[in-house]
């Protein structure tokens, strides 16, 4: 909600949230910038898949809590989250690289550890997330003015 009481915008006042998680191992230094990060994070905590059209990134302070998740659970959660965002974004180079690392890990090829792959998925998700959100809230003012003018020209 912004200062005037409106909802649904993209300003920091409308997207930043105050939230506290209390658990052993949670990082106390992470700032969560977007409300969209709540859905995938809460989904992971509840053990369910993220919403189909979720654009959010997992909150790392929760994901990397060693008392809440094993390394394999973190890796799988970051994979599912990245896959959900990639369905809406399309092929992202970092996401595809992360998939390759994950496939190699699952087949015992290479020496990449779970944390590096998890961080790669998180970085890919964040990159896709920023791009999607930027495009969803960017308006072409010129085209909007033309559409308004044209709408007055149409007689029903």
Account of the protein in words:
- This protein has 7 helices and no strands.
- By secondary structure, it is mainly α.
- It has one domain (12-153).
- The radius of gyration is 19 Å and the shape is elongated.
- The mean pLDDT is 80.
Number of structural domains: 1
Count every beta strand, where a strand is a DSSP E run of 2 or more residues.
Answer: 0
Give the low-pLDDT segments: none
Q: Biggest β-sheet, characterized?
A: none
* CA distance, first residue to last residue: 38 Å
Counting helices, strands and paired strands, the structural category is mainly alpha
Shape: elongated
How many individual helices? 7
Gyration radius (Cα, Å) is 19 Å
Q: What is the element string, with H for helices and E for strands?
A: HHHHHHH
Beta percentage is: under 5%
* Amount of helix: 55-70%
Brief account:
The chain has 156 residues and is mainly α.
Could you name the key traits of this structure?
156 residues, single chain, 7 helices, mainly alpha
Please outline the helices and strands.
Blueprint: H1 12-15, H2 38-46, H3 60-63, H4 71-89, H5 93-106, H6 114-136, H7 141-153
Helix pairs in contact: 4-5, 4-6, 5-6
């Amino acid at each position: 909600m912004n200062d005037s009481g409106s909802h649904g915008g993209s300003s920091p006042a409308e997207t930043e949230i105050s939230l506290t998680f209390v658990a052993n191992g949670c990082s106390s230094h992470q700032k969560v910038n977007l409300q969209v990060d709540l859905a995938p994070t809460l989904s992971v905590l509840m053990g369910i898949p993220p919403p189909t059209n979720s654009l959010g990134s997992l909150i790392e302070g929760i994901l990397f809590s060693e008392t809440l998740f094993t390394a394999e659970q973190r890796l799988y959660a970051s994979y599912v989250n990245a896959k959900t965002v990639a369905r809406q974004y399309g092929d992202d180079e970092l996401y595809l690289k992360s998939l390759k690392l994950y496939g190699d890990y699952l087949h015992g090829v290479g020496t990449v550890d779970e944390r590096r792959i998890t961080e790669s998925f998180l970085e890919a998700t964040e990159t896709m997330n920023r791009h999607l959100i930027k495009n969803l809230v960017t308006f072409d003012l010129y085209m909007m003015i033309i559409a308004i003018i044209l709408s007055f020209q149409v007689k029903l």
